[in-house]
Write a structure and sequence with these properties.
Oligomer: single chain
Radius of gyration: 24 Å
Largest sheet: 9 strands, mixed
Strand content: 15-25%
CATH class of the largest domain: Alpha Beta
Number of domains: 3
Number of helices: 20
Distance between the termini: 62 Å
Length: 503
Amino acid sequence: MTRLDSLSSWHADWSGLRVAVLGLGVTGFAAADTLAELGASVTVVAERVDDERRTILGVLEVPIVDAGRDQLPAALTEAEVVIASPGLRPDHPWLLAAAERGIAIWGDIELAWRVRDKVEAAEWILITGTNGKTTTTQLTAHMLREAGLRVAPVGNIGTPVLDAVRDPAGFDVLVVELSSFQLHTLPAQGPGALWPHSAAVLNIDDDHLDWHGSADAYRAAKAKAYGNARVAAVYSVDDPVTMRMVEEAEVVEGCRAIGFSLGVPGRSDFGLVEDVLVDRAFLDARHAQALELATLADLEPAGLRSPHMTRNVLAAAALARASGASPAQVRDAIRSFTLDRHRTELVAELGGVRFVDDSKATNPHAAEGSLSAFDKVVWIVGGLFKGADVAPLVERHRQRIVAVVAIGVDRQPVREAFARHAPHIPLVEVDTADTVSVMRLAVEAAAEHAAPGITVLLAPAAASMDQFTDYAERGDRFAEAVRAIREREGRAHGDDGGSLRGD
């Protein structure tokens, strides 16, 4: 057994292990902090370093090497293991250099699994997919809290898994949202392989192809979530890719495949019977009966009634029921759930026109769900498409699109898609790089094409980093622009100009 093979517990001997942490974002900092606590000889190698994190690591006596991507510091080449930031592409020179030298490459998730027993080893529930990961993670955690479990939603959702592992209070369950980047480095077997209680792949569509190199590589990364699942492998009946992943997964004997869909569920599935969400998996008489979980009316107040959100609820319910939550606890959690901002969030209704912020729709598959939720829309779209194709989305929804406003640096794919599939639809391009004016101009252009009964929908189908810090800033700018219109109309009419959520 090699030394790295023996490192499968917090209580193993990590002292003096030479580790290079590549990148100092949220996960890199958590990894460096953890390894310092373990007594490893850790060095951070990063292109950019936040001042606050530099100061903290200085106190912890963790050295930082500022290096460009084409530099190979000795700390990297002499390491026994490197912890790679999930943002580093597989072809990054640092990772290629480590691989050429036979240096083990771990991600923060593998490290967290190896040291998960610092306080007590919580069960892990894994959630991934192209879209809906964060909402489903939050829903699952909320349902399990309702069931009385100590639970933390962690991972790609924002809180590093390593932070939860080191929490002195401990948890019964960690609901872990995983990106394809985080899954990419996970081994299938060995001490770093995950053995989750349950796992779900919600859906699959082309995304991050520039990072993974191909659609097959992206799918292969996502499929790793099911590896070694012990109790339940949850998949979408409506998505044959996820069904095939479950069929091909190496799971523990006895692990059940649990499907979810918006139709009447098959035996061992979750679904809808008229307007009732039902469980036909976790009851003895499932050949002829189903358990009522909630109604579509229960989903309405939290903004969960749209088709894609309802699927998220069903997936979360399947995971929660697999962990012991009762139907009543699932229902009560749904009724008390609050959806995050920038996810099909109604910002305002002005003169019969609804303004909806779904800035979290950072790829075409996510925008598909938003567009499907409304009958007629003026669509604000664009940003960084990351190799994804927007044309099929335009073709499928051209009947509901009244007009389109294109923003971002990748406007050409939008132009070409509408020229090919919907040349009759008015298209306005906003050609500015200014983060404030771009959204003001976009909203004003969209409002000019809107009428009562139409929704102005920000569902960019693209990443935001070309013009904004992140999708949240993009959504905030959208809301600011809508407020400006409301205030202007209010002054013109001597009233408040309409209703605005949050004011």
